[in-house]
Specification:
The protein has about 170 residues and is of the alpha/beta class. The protein has a single domain (about 5-170), classed as 3-Layer(aba) Sandwich (Rossmann fold), CATH 3.40.50. It is about 20% helix and about 25% strand. The chain has five helices and seven strands, in the order E-E-E-E-H-E-H-H-E-H-H-E. Strand 4, helix 1 and strand 5 form a beta-alpha-beta unit. The longest helix has 13 residues, at about 140-150. The protein is globular and about 40 Å long. The model is unreliable at about 155-160 (pLDDT under 50). The structure holds S-adenosylmethionine. S-adenosylmethionine binds near residues 9, 36, 62 and 63.
Length: about 170
Amino acid sequence: MPVILNLGAGSVAPMQKSDLANIDEFRDWDITNLDIYNSIVPYSPDRSKMPFPNADIRYSNVESSIPFGDGTVDIALAVSPYGYSVLNGEVHRVLKAGGVAVVIGSQRNKYVCKLDNLCSPALRPHFFDLFEVIPANDLALRSINYIAQRGSRVSSGSKATKLDFFGIYQKR
Ligand SMILES: C[S@@+](CC[C@H](N)C(=O)[O-])C[C@H]1O[C@@H](n2cnc3c(N)ncnc32)[C@H](O)[C@@H]1O
């Protein structure tokens, strides 16, 4: 089953399977939300008491401890990344060869506006920049963009921020 990670998912609008339910390509995809911020991590064994009972939310520092095996992830999504570098060694480790990191955000976001902030120079050659190539042709990724724009809510005014950057980086 294809796997999507929602990196730095935030506390307000984690992605749930139902977000993708009416998109054929995503019907069988697994979505896991990861965040370092403790309050989004489920603590109750009774999922129905949690604010997002259908969302799979896990505590993770996405720069050092993504709870997935090597080469097991199809899409690592980062919407309004803040506080972490997206194209880091840990994201590279879990992506399948040919898997993609999708970065959506504001061009004013310092973690988005410079590629240097998204990727260490040592890792850069291991990612292939597909910015604006795939979105024009790939319904699945355009759909992710749509969902991200609709769902982005959390912290530092991102509710009001225009998400005008869409970058796709494929693991070589
Ligand atoms: C600006 S918020 C964006 C949240 C959400 N993606 C959205 O668009 O609404 C950035 C999130 O990244 C999380 N974060 C920061 N550093 C992180 C790290 N090293 N690992 C995992 N999450 C991190 C923060 O806790 C915060 O929830």
